[in-house]
């Protein structure tokens, strides 16, 4: 008969040391990753500032290092930029949404609204279940919402979708009532 050696008291030192080694390696790796993230984040901020400066989107400083005032060209740019922001904030969004709500349809979903106050038009991007729903929506915009001159700019049938919805772009004349 063969001799059987049973060891009920196993030595777990090797397992314990390997666990400590893995913990140490993960801590070192975490520290290295944090340092790398900090470096990349700082570099990203610098590049973003450089891009804004190159594109001219960064606002000019109010004074230069010598304490001189803004030159005339910088003042004009600042005024134009400020006026653009004020115009966007003063857009009568509530009136526009009320007008669009009057032409509500369960078969049409609006995906985008692009108002242009200067031209008095609004461009609508949407999706309709079928052509009838799209044309009904256009008719309702023209009659119920107070928008005029509703034109279909483009449309496309999504052949890959089994329901074959129609993606469309409309343009309508819209005037603010307030």
Structure write-up:
- This protein is an alpha+beta fold.
- The protein has two domains: 13-86, no CATH class; 91-173, General secretion pathway protein M, EpsM (Gyrase A, domain 2), CATH 3.30.1360.
- It has helices spanning 13-55, 72-89, 93-101, 131-143, and strands at residues 108-116, 121-128, 148-157, 166-173.
- Strands 1-2-4-3 form a four-stranded antiparallel sheet, covered by helices on one side.
- Strand 3 and strand 4 form a beta hairpin.
- It is flat.
- The chain starts with 12 loop residues before the first helix and ends in a 5-residue tail after the last strand.
- The relative contact order is 0.09.
List its salient traits.
flat; 2 domains; 178 residues; Gyrase A, domain 2; alpha+beta; four-stranded antiparallel sheet; 4 helices
Helix proportion of residues, in percent?
40-55%
- Provide the low-confidence segments as ranges: 62-68
Average pLDDT confidence is 82
User: Within the CATH hierarchy, at the fold level, what is the topology of the largest domain?
Assistant: Gyrase A, domain 2
Architecture (CATH level 2) name of the largest domain: 2-Layer Sandwich
Number of helices: 4
Assigned CATH class of the largest domain: Alpha Beta
Structural class: alpha+beta
Distance between the termini: 105 Å
| Major beta sheet, strand line-up | 1-2-4-3
Query: How many structural domains?
Result: 2
Note the overall shape.
Answer: flat
């Amino acid at each position: 008969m063969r001799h059987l050696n049973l060891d009920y008291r196993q030595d777990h030192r090797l397992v314990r040391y390997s666990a400590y080694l893995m913990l140490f390696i993960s801590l070192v790796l975490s520290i290295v990753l944090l340092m790398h993230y900090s470096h990349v984040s700082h570099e990203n901020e610098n590049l973003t500032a450089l891009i804004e400066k190159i594109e001219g989107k960064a606002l000019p400083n109010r004074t230069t290092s010598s304490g001189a005032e803004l030159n005339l060209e910088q003042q004009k740019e600042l005024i134009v930029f400020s006026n653009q922001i004020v115009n966007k904030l003063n857009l009568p969004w509530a009136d526009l949404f009320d007008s669009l709500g009057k032409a509500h349809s369960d078969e049409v979903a609006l995906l985008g609204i692009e108002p242009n106050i200067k031209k008095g038009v609004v461009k609508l991007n949407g999706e309709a279940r079928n052509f009838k729903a799209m044309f009904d929506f256009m008719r309702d915009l023209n009659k119920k919402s107070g928008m005029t001159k509703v034109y279909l700019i483009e449309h496309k049938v999504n052949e890959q979708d089994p329901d074959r919805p129609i993606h469309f772009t409309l343009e309508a004349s819209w005037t603010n009532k307030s």
